[in-house]
From TrEMBL:
InterPro entries: Rossmann-like_a/b/a_fold, Universal_stress_UspA, UspA. It comes from the Bacteria. Residues 158-185 have a biased composition (Basic and acidic residues). Residues 153-185 are annotated as: Disordered. It holds the Pfam family Usp. CDD domains: USP-like. This is Universal stress protein. Residues 5-141, 199-336 form the UspA domain.
Length: 342
């Protein structure tokens, strides 16, 4: 057992937490880490004249129900040979998981199930944990069930506008050479957006990209999957405006070069540290959130940071991270940057 290393996972007995547990257990087995199961209950509003009579009995019953759920999952972990502990507490589940993340290597939580408003609401627990965790957070979405068909169709992103919303334009501008891995083809996915069975890392030109990419490389190494580093910037006059078209045409290649040079440098660093890992990079003319959300339709895992610079700027999670988490249909690993950590 790796000393003091553990995975913490939020458990409430729902199908979402069931999937989160399965992923957390798999990581714990693979890395030989301990597993910590966390369950919480909230004390409801009770009229003052009934408070004394109800308070104690409610707390006992609520705690017992949570403990029973945790024990069921604990038994499965013990059967798998994983060291496991539990914590039951009254209060906000998101806050409790953030607290537990201080001493964990990874926190895992399920994402609220898909519905027409799913793009608007990540979920209070998963959203709070991803924004404030002191360790990387893996957000596991609802499992997709597809009808049997002769053709493969990737699931659509979870958009607040609905499934018929306008598709965001995205053009592949540059990429590294690579040997083409064996990939499935999807009828509803363009080839340049097909990241089937790959780990995809969102890369910005900020210094924090290195930490994000190295975490993504570890995940790819553990799962024996190829790693693709992805950057995007909207190279149009609405974003990068210059007084005349000539200046615009001269400056755009410089902007693109900043991204591609950074991608090349990070790819070389990953290859040096993980020589057996297949590493590829791509640069898109598009929004970072749009490209990474689209990648989640086929990727095995998408890795993002809590905040960055330029295309990845924002508060708390950052505008890109928040959008990707809301819309993603693949697991998303959120890596807190050094600037964000407390």
């Amino acid at each position: 057992m790796a000393e003091n290393h553990s995975v913490v996972v939020g458990i409430d007995g729902s199908p979402n937490s069931e999937r989160a547990f399965e992923v957390a257990l798999s990581v714990a087995e693979n890395r030989q880490w301990a597993l910590r199961l966390v369950g919480a209950y909230v004390y409801p509003f009770v009229p003052e004249d009934q408070f004394v009579r109800i308070a104690d009995s409610y707390r006992r019953e609520a705690a017992q129900r949570v403990e029973e759920v945790l024990e069921r999952f604990s038994a499965r972990a013990r059967d798998a040979g994983v060291e496991v502990s539990t914590r039951t507490a009254e209060g906000d589940a998101g806050g409790l998981l953030v607290e537990e993340s201080r001493s964990a290597e990874l926190a895992v939580v399920g994402k609220r199930g898909r519905n027409r408003f799913a793009g608007r609401f990540l979920g209070s627990v998963s959203g709070k944990l991803a924004a404030h965790a002191h360790c990387p957070t893996l957000v596991v979405p609802e499992k997709w069930e597809v009808e049997e068909s002769g053709a493969l169709f990737a699931p659509q992103q979870e958009r607040p506008e609905g499934p018929q919303s306008e598709h965001e334009p995205s053009t592949l501008m540059a990429e590294s050479e690579r040997s083409q891995p064996q990939r499935r083809r999807f009828e509803n996915v363009k080839e340049e957006h097909n990241f089937d069975s790959q780990v995809v890392a969102g890369v910005d030109v900020g210094q924090t990209s290195t930490e994000i990419v190295l975490r993504a490389a570890e995940a790819a190494q553990m799962t024996r999957l190829p790693l693709t580093l992805v950057s995007a910037a909207p190279l149009n006059t609405d974003v990068y405006w210059y007084p005349n078209p000539v200046q615009h045409n001269l400056e755009i290649p410089k902007i693109r070069g900043k991204y591609t040079d950074h991608l090349k440098e990070l790819s070389e660093q990953v290859s040096a540290e993980h020589p057996q890992l297949q590493v590829h990079w791509q640069f898109f003319d598009s929004t970072p959130a749009g490209v990474l959300s689209e990648a989640s339709r086929t990727a095995a895992l998408v890795v993002i940071g809590t905040r960055g610079h330029g295309g990845f700027a924002g508060l708390l999670l950052g505008s890109v991270s928040q959008t990707v988490l809301n819309r993603a249909v693949a697991p998303v690993l959120v890596v807190p940057t050094k600037k964000h950590r407390r």
